[in-house]
Specification:
Strand content: 15-25%
Shape: globular
Number of domains: 1
Strand order of the largest sheet: 1-2-4-3-5-6-7-8
Number of strands: 8
Number of helices: 14
CATH class: Alpha Beta
Largest sheet: 8 strands, mixed
Helix content: 40-55%
Order of helices and strands: HEEEHHEHEHEHHHHHHEHEHH
């Protein structure tokens, strides 16, 4: 176990050397958040999903496309990419929303269009509920909003535990992650294959022990987080565009996106035919159109 931990640590260090920060850092309450900013115009904030990082949006081409008309700000959420995940905090969607509100205030962004993908959609909704004056419109892509039985959440309970979770994350998790990577991509991108551009996503960064532990923690929070958040959706009174692939193999869009559409009065729902969970990768122009649609509903 000690030998495996040493090897995994060295691979993680190499991954970080091979993939240095591409953006800047901002200190928010002692958390050194890594963020990337491109373009000018109306602020557009992007929140990535569980296990991901800034490079997901970069490789998709969404950041460059959006930067043609918007001031795009994308964060590595706590525990992912180059942002640490301090202990002593349960990093719920609500806790992250408060963190990003403070970060945006420091960046001089007091009102923004906010897009969240997958777990990031929960953060986007929490930001709109807790700080409604900070969000002018929402774009929610492939999100999980209502509690359902999930095997991934149950499987993540042990890796998410303090102490034992650290041991698992530094020994078994990276090995299992590498073995399961092809299967995971089929689940995330199915029914389509991962596009060539996804090769720009740094796999080894995602398989670092600290990031895998953060992923386990967020997976374990999915069901209880959705149970709590579901009570707040009717409070969202801003233009909202909900977009999902109609063949998502990770999340049932009828139980999630369609149901959320019924809860939020000022929402529109777009089902993208033949697409899976990673619609920002496989259907980036549709996601860009959803952003423009949300922006058009809130004249600047």
């Amino acid at each position: 176990m000690a030998g495996t931990a040493i090897i995994n640590r060295r691979r993680a260090q190499k991954a970080q050397r091979d993939n240095p920060p591409q953006g800047r850092f901002i200190d928010v309450g002692g958390v050194q958040l890594h963020y990337l900013e491109r373009g000018s115009g109306r602020p557009l904030v992007l929140f990535h999903g569980n296990g991901s990082m800034i490079q997901d949006f970069l490789s998709s081409g969404l950041i460059d496309r959006a930067a043609e008309n918007y001031r795009v700000i994308v964060f590595d959420r706590p525990g992912f990419g180059h942002s640490p995940r301090p202990r002593g905090v349960v990093w719920t969607a609500e806790a992250q929303a408060d963190l990003f509100k403070a970060a945006l205030d420091q960046l001089g962004v007091h009102r923004a269009i906010v897009l969240g993908h997958s777990w990031g959609a929960s953060v986007a909704v929490a930001l709109a509920v807790r700080h409604p004056l900070s969000v002018e419109a929402l774009v929610l892509a492939s999100g999980y909003y209502f509690p359902t039985a999930r095997r991934d959440g149950a499987a993540s309970l042990l890796p998410a535990m303090p102490g034992l979770g650290d041991i698992i994350s530094y020994t078994a998790s990276p090995i299992v992650g590498r073995l399961m990577w092809p299967v995971m991509l089929k689940t995330l991108f199915g029914p389509r294959s991962a596009p060539r551009k996804f090769a720009g996503f740094p796999k080894e960064m995602a398989l670092r022990p600290k990031q895998m532990r953060a992923s386990a923690a967020e997976a374990a929070l999915m069901v209880p987080g959705a149970f709590s958040a579901a009570k707040t959706y009717r409070e969202v009174e801003i233009p909202t565009v909900i977009i999902s692939g109609d063949e998502d193999r990770l999340i049932d869009i009828d139980e999630q996106s369609a149901r959320l559409h019924a809860e939020i009065k000022q929402s529109k729902l777009h089902r993208i035919a033949g697409m899976g969970h990673m619609i920002h990768q496989s259907a980036m122009p549709d996601v860009m159109a959803a952003i423009d649609e949300a922006a058009a509903q809130t004249p600047h």
